[in-house]
Specification:
Layout: E1 6-8, H1 10-27, E2 34-40, H2 44-53, E3 58-68, E4 74-82, E5 92-100, H3 104-114, E6 120-128, E7 141-145, E8 150-152, E9 168-171
Parallel strand pairs: 2-3, 2-5, 5-6, 6-7
Antiparallel strand pairs: 1-9, 3-4, 8-9
The structure holds inosinic acid.
């Protein structure tokens, strides 16, 4: 099977992740605890790389939501599949997303996590499709802005394929 064409190279991703980690470490330098909450499944590689480059005390949690079926067409409401395990009350939370598309997932997550009573919530995404935004959601850290296209690799999939590509590539969804 042919590989998807490269949109963002492995070297460019690694450089940007290092920059984001530096910025986040600077912003949280006076905090003694930051909880990174990775949104499964797509953020697992980004979270692994980002978290290892931070120079501040941090702990890792995961949350799982589902908003798409097995392809690229949104199935409707965001559904919580797995909540965080640890207690985040009174703690500084950084949500780590792979990609913000319409913004519904991140907006839902912020509302849901806010009900757990954290000290603060910030958001970080590797990729942002600004032109697809349907809800206004605050994103504090963005890796790369991209256009209206379907991307795979570095944790992102199309119908569960290509998650482990080391770069971000684009594919032509057959269901759009
Ligand atoms: P949103 O709720 O529309 O912002 O969608 C966010 C979720 O949709 C992400 O966490 C991904 O799981 C998925 N998603 C959106 N666009 C893409 C893409 O281009 N490739 C892979 N997954 C995507």
């Amino acid at each position: 099977m042919s590989q998807p064409p490269v949109l963002i190279s492995e070297a460019d991703i690694q450089k940007r992740v290092a920059e984001l980690a530096e910025e986040i470490s600077r912003d949280y330098q006076d905090k003694d605890d930051v909880v990174l909450i990775g949104v499964l499944k797509g953020s697992f590689i980004f979270l692994a790389d980002l978290s290892r480059r931070l120079t501040i005390p941090r702990t890792i949690e995961f949350i799982a939501v589902s908003s798409y079926g097995n392809g690229s067409v949104q199935s409707g409401a965001v559904r919580l599949v797995m909540d965080v395990r640890g207690n985040i009350e009174g703690r500084h939370v950084l949500i780590v997303e792979d990609i913000v598309d319409t913004g519904h997932t991140l907006s839902y997550l912020i509302g849901m996590l806010r009900s757990h009573g954290p000290a603060s919530i910030r958001t970080c995404t590797l990729l942002h499709k600004a032109e697809r935004a349907e809800v206004d959601v605050k994103i504090d850290y963005v890796g790369f802005g991209i256009g209206d296209e379907w991307v795979v690799g570095y944790g992102l999939d199309y119908a569960e394929q290509n998650r482990t590509l080391p770069y971000i590539g684009n594919v032509e969804p057959t269901d759009r």
